[in-house]
Each structure stands twice: as structure tokens, then as C-alpha cells.
User: Fold SCP domain-containing protein from Roseovarius nubinhibens.
Amino acid sequence: MILATTLLLAACGGGGIGPGPQESVVRAGPISHIPGDLSRQALDAVNSYRAQYSQPLLRTNGRLAAAAASHAADMAATDGLSHTGSDGGDVADRARAAGYDYCFIAENIAQGPQDIPEALAGWMASPGHRQNMLNPRAREMALAQRGAYWVMVLGERGC
Assistant:
């Protein structure tokens, strides 16, 4: 498994970007099936991790789901694993395009996990990905999968 770090952007009020970006990537073998209800399974698993670290529980958000799904589809169409979309946009651009007005946004991506537990275990084993999943600023999340590509977006609206 090859690891890098995760794109982490934070913005409050006027949409300025906070701490410098950290990119993170997880790669694994080919996927053989597509799991059922990604949102519920992922939410339960991530909230279980967050509870272990005394972090607030997350809820799903349809706009984050749209941002995650669009990026998963883009990576599958281009057969490339990157936080930068084929249009040059990043997670902040995708969140805004989906109508998500954020003050915190983070993204984890992976290629190849066979199921949700494998994707989440890979992210939890990586310091940058784990930091995103356990970030106390995150209040909402979404997970999308297209083929071998997985995208998790975490965010906090407004501020």
C-alpha cells in the first residue's frame, strides 16, 4: 500500500484557505464488488472511531455526497488517483459547486479497497487520513465509490 497525506483545507467567513494543504493517497489492489449502503455503513464506522477518541459524532450531508460522487466518477473516468480533478479543481471547488458553504473541508481518497472496512482501515492507519476523520471541526461527511476509487469528504458548514 502506498500512502501520501490528505488534502486538508479550512476556511471561515470569506472563504480564505487556512492551514496549508496536505495531500494523501491510499492505493491497493483492484476492486471486485460494490458494497450496498455506503453512507450508513461508513457513517456508523467513522462515528465508532470518533467515539473512541471523544470526538463529536458526524451526520451525512447530501451536498458533500454530491461532491464526493463527482470526484469518484471523475477519477474512474480518467483512471487516475488525485485530489485534483480533471478540470483542475480541488475538494474546496467541488464542495462549493455542490452548494456546500463550508468553514472546514477535508478529503480522503483511495484506489482499490475491496469494501468500506478496508478503505477506513487504510485511512485510519495513515496519520493524515486519520487526522481528517477524527478532526473535531468536522460535523458532516459523505463517502462515494466508483469502481476502484473511493472518496470521503468531511466538512463543517458556515461558521
Q: What stands out?
A: The CA atoms of residues 83 and 89 lie 8 Å apart. Confidence is low (pLDDT under 50) at residues 1-36. The chain is about 35% helix and 25% strand. Residues 45-157 form a domain with the Pathogenesis-related Protein p14a fold (CATH 3.40.33.10).
